[in-house]
Amino acid sequence: MSHKLDKIDIKIIRLLWDGRTPYSDIAEKVDLTTNTVRNRVNKLLESGALQIISLVNPNAVENVSSAIIGFKVLPQNVAKALDQISTLKGVVGAVIVSGRFDIMGVFMFNDEHSYNRFLEEELQKVDGLLSMETFNAIGGKTWQLRYVL
């Protein structure tokens, strides 16, 4: 991603929080024309600096659960493991982190793609996996995720 966000971009992104705010409303609040806002949003989208997506509270979907999983992998495998984890079924997102884990990921499960199935079928695809710890999401007011199942 080569696009660096400036103060105007940040203001526009904050005003796009619900993803449905009309560009004309944003333009008024940032003192730009509607076309300028549209052009800036398009550049942000094209560069990958911004995505406009729908989110769901997993607790609102029947038979869906979510978890945050920390992975410890061999030091020489961190980048490769991140790529592999990012493609596993049910992954919402994954990132290399500092701390006791090397990678943290957010995952979604349902009846068809259960946590047990994830353990049995998906984890074997991660090279150099040493250990993992799962934190099941059990509630939260702002917990919303991309629906990936």
Tell me what the structure shows.
This protein is α+β, with helices and mostly antiparallel strands. The chain folds into two domains: 7-47, Arc Repressor Mutant, subunit A; 58-136, Lrp/AsnC effector binding domain/regulation of amino acid metabolism (RAM) domain (Alpha-Beta Plaits, 2-Layer Sandwich), CATH 3.30.70. Helix content is 32%, strand content 20%. A hairpin with a 6-residue loop joins strand 2 (91-96) and strand 3.
Helicity, as a percent range: 25-40%
| CATH fold field value of the largest domain | Alpha-Beta Plaits
Shape type: globular
- Unreliable segments (pLDDT under 50, ≥5 consecutive)? none
Question: Which series of helices and strands comes N to C?
Answer: HHHEHEEHE
SSE blueprint and pairings:
Elements: H1 7-15, H2 23-30, H3 34-47, E1 65-73, H4 78-86, E2 91-96, E3 103-109, H5 115-122, E4 129-136
Antiparallel strand pairs: 1-3, 1-4, 2-3
Helix pairs in contact: 2-3
Short description:
This protein has 149 residues and is of the alpha+beta class.
Name a few traits of the molecule.
about 150 residues; alpha+beta; Arc Repressor Mutant, subunit A; Alpha-Beta Plaits; 4-stranded antiparallel beta sheet; 5 helices; globular
